[in-house]
């Protein structure tokens, strides 16, 4: 009887939590592996950072929205840790990436990318790029 009660309580908690709290994250060890294997690893000084976003519907039935954010970072290379493309200190680079966020619930493989916190001119940040 106790096992049945425990199971029912667990099922109730899972039902109340909904999908949002059950989403899996990429393990830190996997992210570290991606960073360690990136062909470009440099420290940069931000020259300028631009971000623009657009929101559009993606699922008319559920009323879902997708926010797409384009980020462009202009930077000067300070230190080169490794570079498959022969980057050198003093060179200027442009890093562009896209972030996609679905609300209320993302389709499989829907959300990707993160918008880094406020990046301002003069910030010094490490970059590991594929």
In terms of quaternary structure, the protein is single chain
What percent of residues adopt helix (DSSP H or I)?
10-25%
Low-confidence stretches: 1-23
Q: What's the total count of β strands?
A: 4
Number of domains: 1
Describe this entry's structure for a reader.
The chain has 130 residues and is α+β, with helices and mostly antiparallel strands. It has one domain (39-129). The protein contains 2 helices and 4 strands, in the order H-H-E-E-E-E. The chain has helices at 2-17, 28-37; strands at 40-59, 64-83, 92-103, 124-129. The chain has a 4-stranded antiparallel beta sheet, with no helix packed on it. The longest helix is centred in the first third of the chain and has 16 residues, at 2-17. The termini are far apart.
Defining key terms:
single chain, 130 residues, alpha+beta, globular
What is the secondary structure topology, with strand pairs?
Elements: H1 2-17, H2 28-37, E1 40-59, E2 64-83, E3 92-103, E4 124-129
Please summarize what this structure is:
This protein is an alpha+beta fold and 130 residues long. 20% of the residues lie in helices and 45% in strands.
